[in-house]
Amino acid sequence: MSRNRSARVIVSLIVIATLTVSLVGGCRGTKFFERERLSDRSMQFDTDDSFVFIRNKTEAAREGAFGGYGAAAAGGCGCQ
Amino acid sequence: MTAILAVCLGLLSGLRASDDGDSSVAFDLYAFRQHDGGGDPLRAEGFDYQGFRVAIVRRVDETYRLRVNGTLAFIDNEEALLPPPTVTNALTTSASPSLLTLDTNFTLDITPEHSPWTYSPGFYYHHQIEYIGTGLDFGIQRELLDGDVQVEARYSFRWDFLELAYWDQTFRGNDDRISHNTLFSWTQNLSPSTRGNLSFQYTRQDGFLSEPYNYVTLYRADGDPILFVDERLPNRRDRLQVNARLRWSPEIATALGLDTSYYLGSWGLQHAAVEPSAETELFAEWRLRLWYRLSFQKGARYFEDRPLVSRRFQTRDSDLGSFFMQSPGGTLTVPLGSNEEIRFSVYGFTRDDGVDGLGSKLGVIFRW
User: Fold this and answer.
1) B251 contact residues in A (CB cutoff 8 A)
2) Chain A residues with CB inside 8 Å of B101's CB?
């Protein structure tokens, strides 16, 4: 797959996911007794903080685009 | 590190603990290797990273919860390459040698009695040779709609201090860098089997944003490298990132996920990523989560592969260039008892510019 085609596919998926979350956000809520599956650990977005830490350290020391799900930008670690 | 751990443990042991199962201590070992099979042909970009992390969560009472973590890591950089003989201004270059790094975070979660809000002030400290990072964090979150929605806002301030030891072995004083990072996040239960999250992150940085060890090779028109010059980048950077995440569970203990993110920076860098994932229970409560991340990056406008002339701003840092990246990984979680478990992760990435990496993590967590 060429770079341009890969980029188009990825951007399309991002738009679809964003619209889905936005539009479905208007759905009805859940009752307390309906949350058995939601409370399972498999439904957590990140199950392991320490793994998020190491992925941020090793994959995104500088460009910072990995994740972005809450890690603060320290501006590059100057490791190398 | 030992002193910090001692302080943490002493502080924690002196507090009255509740026994609601919200406290834990985790130990993790990391190993990661970045392999340089491309990137900048005249710069060694490989390194080994080995780390040890301790993370403590201590529920003090109904109001207070303390979170402390510290990571000590050893980084062994690949040996610097000898400049080719056509390069006239350098006989040798230097990369930072093997070094130790220390990262620490202290956060206190405060949920006042009868309040729907949780406030989370904290501070951060990073230490390594020629680089010290300090910072303050503040987060606020609450639930809405009987727990169906969780909203969160977070702000982080970072002030980094650098000693400017350059690639050509000159020392050019000190400088600093200030970063402001804000995050707004909305998480919602969309149905009894679906959860979604939207978040926006804005980061602004001011100060010295180049890497002193980075140099740019200038070439003659016939293709021979002739000069090394400093990497030079603007002293301000703004970044905006949008993330959308979905998880869907067809049955208890099984879930599929789709994470996406798009990032745009004032240096012209754009990055789009999508990461499908799946988690299921194997047997005896062993859990396996797998993911495959695909991302595309359009490089910064200051990135040039083979520049012929020196410019006001320029870089040849592969992390600021264009590439397509694939990054698979997986985590296996094995319970040891009712409150302890082992977590083993393997992950890697490969980029079409020739840089790739492989890492693993082994950890154990105890909860009470």
Assistant:
1) 37
2) 77, 79
